[in-house]
Amino acid sequence: MHESDTYQYILEEGHALGAQRMLLRQGRKRFGEPDEATRLVLQRILDMDRLERLSERLLEVSIWQELLQTP
């Protein structure tokens, strides 16, 4: 079961959703409430490497748009 592609996909998606929630929560404290477009962009990011880069960059930028420019 743990080796199936479907199981691995579900795990990765769950990790990505958790990372997105954390970015939104921390970003709200730092930048204020994101607009709908920003929320949608974050919800579409499922790449854990990029989500991790965003979480690190969160400490260096001053607005949502600058954060989302992180590759």
Summarize the structure.
With 71 residues, the protein is mainly α. It has four helices and no strands. 72% of the residues lie in helices and 0% in strands.
Separation of the first and last Cα atoms:
33 Å
The beta-strand count equals: 0
Figure out the total of helices: 4
For the residues shown, what is the average pLDDT?
Answer: 90
Characterize the largest beta sheet: strand count, sense, and whether it forms a barrel. none
Helix content: over 70%
Strand content: under 5%
General shape: elongated
Estimated radius of gyration? 13 Å
Counting helices, strands and paired strands, the structural category is mainly alpha
Number of domains: 1
Spell out the helices and strands N to C. HHHH
Low-confidence stretches: none
If you had to describe this structure to a student in words, what would you say it looks like?
There is one protein chain. By secondary structure, the chain is mainly α. It has one domain (5-68). The protein has helices spanning 5-31, 36-44, 48-57, 64-68. The longest helix is centred in the first third of the chain and has 27 residues, at 5-31. The mean pLDDT is 90.
